[in-house]
Amino acid sequence: MMRISSTLPIGWLVMLFPKIDADPADGFVTENELTEWHLQQAAKEVLHRSMREMEVHDKNHDGFVSFAEYEPPSWVKNDNNSFGYDMGWWKEEHFNASDANGDGLLNITEFNDFLHPSDSKSPKLLHWLCKEEVRERDTDRDGKVNFDEFFHGLFDLVRNYDEEDHNSSHPSHDSLESPARHLFSQLDKDGDRLLSEEELLPIIGKIHPSERYYAKQQADYIISQADSDKDGRLSLLEMIENPYVFYSAIFSEDEDDDDYEYHDEFR
């Protein structure tokens, strides 16, 4: 991919505008159109990085990665107490959950899911994520998550996902306990006052947000900064008048790489 100049010529925005203004093409860019465009760009960049990573691990160059070929990152191998290692993120169970067809090898799609499980739609991987959450939160080691384990570990993640102004407020412990118990009871389908792996499935996307979550945050940020007439959408003129808001929210340059990097500001 070609590096985009940090001067961000106006012509770039003029060419880009109709690509974003696609649903419908009405001369305005909406939050949804920006989100979809961000998502498309992020997916391309993530796949590009996964392909480069696959080249490193595909020792026999057959286009697949076996578990024997895969080596965890050095920080995992050197620190057995690290979150990723302890949670099994680099272990065979994770590998097998990513192996959609069960042939013992990961093709590029499966390997991409392996590296980015929160963006996968694979039932096997989503279940594995739920299992890892139980493994981490289950302090009494009974194989499930009780209310205290849920309240002190998972509820704040769900709340942070649902409430945009979460970080700007600091509600009391008591004020949060009631909505936490309500959500817990909704998830506890069998009424045993414990959450199983399966019962965590409805909220796993909030515990591990997908790329769409970040794409929407980026779209909201751009509109909040560049929407001069406050109509909730952007015209080409508004984008031209605020070029660096648009640019800085999308790209960051890597001086050691000829490729653009998808901006990581909202992670």
Question: How would you summarize the topology of this molecule?
Answer:
Blueprint: H1 10-20, E1 29-30, H2 31-57, E2 65-66, H3 74-77, H4 83-87, H5 92-98, E3 105-106, H6 108-115, H7 123-137, H8 147-151, H9 155-162, H10 173-187, H11 197-200, H12 204-207, H13 211-226, E4 233-234, H14 236-241, H15 243-248, E5 251-252, E6 261-262
What is the helix content? Answer: 40-55%
Q: Provide the gyration radius in Å.
A: 21 Å
H-E order: HEHEHHHEHHHHHHHHEHHEE
Provide the β-strand percentage band: under 5%
Helical stretch tally: 15
Low-pLDDT regions: 1-7, 252-267
Defining traits:
4% strand; mainly alpha; EF-hand-dom_pair; calcium; 267 residues; single chain; flat
Structural write-up:
- The chain is mainly α and 267 residues long.
- It contains 15 helices and six strands.
- It has one domain.
- The strands form three sheets. A two-stranded antiparallel sheet has the order 1-4. Strands 2-3 form a two-stranded antiparallel ribbon.
- A hairpin with an 8-residue loop joins strand 5 and strand 6.
- Helix 2 crosses helix 13.
- The longest helix has 27 residues, at 31-57.
- The chain is flat.
Q: What does this entry show, briefly?
A:
The protein is mainly alpha-helical and 267 residues long.
